[in-house]
Recover the amino acids of this structure.
């Protein structure tokens, strides 16, 4: 249950909000304009893969530049159109459609008469353009002129008519033209971007539904009667007769989504004057002239010359003859080549699933994987949108789904940045009290999160303790003791952190630290050894300071000494404790051995002691900068095998020639000691005793040193010789 709640909160709801807002944004005008631009680009892209020419059943006759030169100023006398009709009618086309309005009578009556005579002489099916009009400007369906005309409404219409293109009146061709020819409404309202993408196949006027110019043209081409058409608004127009069976998809406004495939160069075209001149030569002058076939074809007449009024934008160009809008509609129906817009909800649902899944899978992946997802999905979606349009005329919206998807990627990145920032703050807060600010900054900059919860790694454990601390508690008041310990512990902690160490804890006067965690330090042993000697040097400076402060501190403070123990090896590191209270700490056998090094230093008269593992690791990274003195081997409590151990004498740059001489003599004495040359060993230790760095009675707080310790051991063995198999290993009796 908790997992489901987390998925809903972190992945599903962000995707739901992003995709829903993107969908709503997609309904805005400017977003639709952007979407239309992407559709036009896809339309231009598919030209190279579609049939090169439109259906041969349609011939577009254009009033082009040459026609304007031949017939002079536009509009031409209507007798020109009468002659054209009479000539074209002789070729027996299926229908001659005029995307030109003749709603006003000519100024010269005989021009209208000649036009009408040519129309009747053609004996062809002719469709003239009509227009919707306001009530006071046009005719109503019950007007005698409308009833006398050849305009017939569609009868079988079901569905909600309220969204059809509606006006109360209409404008038909003037006079007897409306009776002698069919009428089709030329109204094609432009979209928000000016392009006519949805073209109505019907209009509603005075409660009746009439076919538009494209629809009327097809009806005449296939000799379809109004009663042979069934309209289901929002679904389809169905044509069924002996010549055609078509199901044409329409929307709630009765419009067809135009599947633009061709500009003017894709249609079979002929100039108006050129066609009229050629037909005149054939039928009047009896000459053989090559003309495009017109028999049985749809002849669509319209304006195509630049500068004429019937021009507008299409997907192919910003200024295109609008007669080509009707030509594309007719071609779509002839070929049954319909464009369809995919419904929004499957796209929204798919985007929601993909978005939520992407957040779930990639929010924690590496940036490379997240980037591949963020870029790969849009590329694949764009390719899918192009393929669906090119191959199947399916309009897949691109803009709002991509806006929603990219907003989710921004959300994912922002959430990741916030989480990383919080993690950095958490690291700083968690480790700021353990390690130096410089180390915390390094940890954050490296991007390496510490492994919390416990893991095994190689570190150097550090333990320090004040010699005879119980005496301090007896002689100092609590407030003074706190002041003293704060000064001492601050100095020790600062040095440990400056060398890259991590504070584990304080145990009274004891300092427990680790080197090599929470981030790895290859030279952790060297750093720990250097830190131990800096602490000892700093304590010397503090003793001088405290003594200079006179009666503020008792003599025991001036003589303070601290013992330090180090050991390197594999340890368990992590947050350990209860669920509500834990500590970043270390544990394991090697940690215990470091504690034994600190507590055992007293028995050997030294103040910094380490294991052989620490010495070897230190020398790998620090060379001979740290100087060690071998003190033999010891079996500490809790272990069965002997451990070689060493005193850290100091840093090379701080040691005197006398100290080096002492170490050399002491090493000679150790050789004789292991050889059971008691007299020789005793002589060496007696000499090194005189030049030890720490001398009882001379060095504050010092009561012994290694030379004195081994002098007493030699004297013991002189009186009580060891067993024959003695190997020099000391067995510790105390922790």
């Amino acid at each position: 249950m908790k997992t489901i709640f987390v998925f809903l909160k972190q992945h599903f709801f962000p995707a739901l909000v992003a995709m829903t807002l993107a969908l709503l944004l997609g309904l805005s005008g400017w977003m639709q304009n952007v979407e239309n631009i992407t559709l036009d680009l896809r339309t231009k892209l598919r030209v190279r893969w579609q049939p090169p020419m439109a259906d041969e059943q349609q011939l577009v006759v254009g009033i082009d530049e040459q026609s304007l030169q031949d017939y002079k100023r536009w509009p031409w006398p209507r007798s020109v159109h009468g002659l054209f009709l009479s000539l074209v009618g002789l070729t027996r086309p299926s229908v001659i459609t005029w995307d030109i309005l003749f709603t006003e009578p000519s100024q010269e009556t005989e021009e209208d008469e000649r036009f009408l005579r040519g129309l009747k002489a053609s004996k062809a099916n002719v469709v003239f353009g009509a227009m919707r009009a306001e009530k006071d400007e046009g005719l109503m369906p019950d007007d005698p002129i409308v009833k006398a005309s050849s305009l017939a409404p569609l009868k079988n219409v079901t569905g909600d008519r309220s969204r059809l293109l509606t006006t109360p009146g209409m404008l038909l061709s003037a006079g007897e033209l409306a009776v002698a020819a069919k009428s089709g409404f030329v109204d094609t309202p432009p979209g928000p971007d000016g392009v006519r993408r949805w073209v109505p196949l019907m209009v509603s006027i005075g409660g009746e539904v009439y076919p538009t110019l494209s629809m009327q043209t097809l009806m005449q081409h296939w000799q379809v009667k109004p009663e042979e058409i069934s309209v289901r608004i929002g679904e389809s127009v169905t044509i069924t007769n002996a010549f055609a069976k078509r199901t044409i998809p329409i929307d709630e406004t009765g419009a067809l989504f135009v599947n633009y495939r061709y500009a003017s160069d894709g249609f079979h075209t002929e100039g108006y004057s050129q066609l009229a001149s050629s037909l005149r030569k054939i039928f009047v002058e009896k000459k053989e002239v090559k003309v495009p076939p017109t028999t049985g074809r749809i002849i669509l007449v319209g304006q195509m010359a630049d500068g004429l009024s019937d021009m507008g934008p299409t997907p192919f160009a910003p200024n295109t003859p609008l007669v080509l809008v009707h030509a594309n509609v007719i071609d779509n129906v002839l070929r049954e080549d319909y464009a369809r817009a995919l419904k929004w909800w499957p796209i929204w649902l798919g985007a929601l699933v993909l978005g939520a899944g992407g957040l779930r899978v990639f929010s924690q992946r590496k940036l490379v994987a997240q980037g591949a997802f963020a870029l790969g999905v849009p590329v694949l979606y764009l390719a899918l949108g192009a393929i669906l349009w090119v191959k199947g005329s399916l309009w897949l919206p691109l803009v709002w789904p991509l806006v929603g998807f990219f907003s989710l990627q921004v959300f994912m990145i922002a959430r990741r940045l916030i989480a990383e920032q919080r993690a950095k703050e958490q690291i700083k807060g968690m480790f700021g009290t353990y390690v130096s600010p410089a180390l915390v900054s390094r940890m954050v900059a490296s991007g390496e999160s510490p492994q919390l919860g416990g893991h095994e790694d190689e570190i150097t454990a550090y333990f320090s303790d004040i010699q005879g601390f119980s005496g301090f508690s007896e002689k100092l008041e609590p407030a003074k003791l706190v002041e003293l310990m704060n000064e001492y512990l601050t100095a020790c902690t600062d040095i440990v952190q400056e060398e890259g160490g991590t504070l584990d804890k304080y145990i009274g006067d004891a300092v427990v630290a680790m080197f090599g965690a929470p981030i790895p330090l290859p030279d952790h042993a060297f750093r720990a050894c250097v830190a131990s000697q800096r602490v000892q040097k700093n304590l010397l400076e503090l003793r001088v300071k405290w003594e200079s402060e006179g009666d503020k501190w008792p003599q025991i403070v001036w003589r303070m000494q601290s013992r330090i123990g180090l050991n390197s090896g594999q340890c368990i590191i992590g947050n350990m404790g209860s669920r509500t209270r834990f500590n970043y700490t270390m544990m394991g056998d090697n940690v215990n051995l470091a504690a034994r090094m600190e507590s055992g230093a007293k028995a050997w008269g030294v103040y910094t002691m380490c294991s052989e593992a620490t010495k070897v690791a230190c020398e790998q990274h620090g060379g001979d900068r740290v100087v060690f003195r071998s003190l033999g081997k010891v079996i500490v409590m809790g272990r069965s095998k002997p451990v070689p151990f060493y005193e850290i004498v100091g840093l090379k740059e701080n040691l005197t020639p006398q100290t080096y001489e002492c170490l050399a003599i002491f090493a000679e004495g150790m050789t004789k000691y292991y050889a059971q040359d008691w007299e020789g060993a005793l002589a060496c230790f007696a000499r090194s005793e005189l030049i030890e760095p720490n001398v009882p009675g001379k060095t504050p707080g010092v009561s012994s040193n290694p030379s004195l310790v081994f002098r007493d051991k030699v004297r013991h063995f002189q009186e009580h010789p060891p067993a024959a198999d003695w190997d020099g290993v000391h067995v510790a009796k105390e922790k």
About this structure: Residues 656-735 form one domain. The chain has four domains: 2-33+342-423, 50-338, 449-651, 656-735. Residues 399-431 form the longest helix (33 residues). Residues 234 and 312 are 27 Å apart (CA to CA).
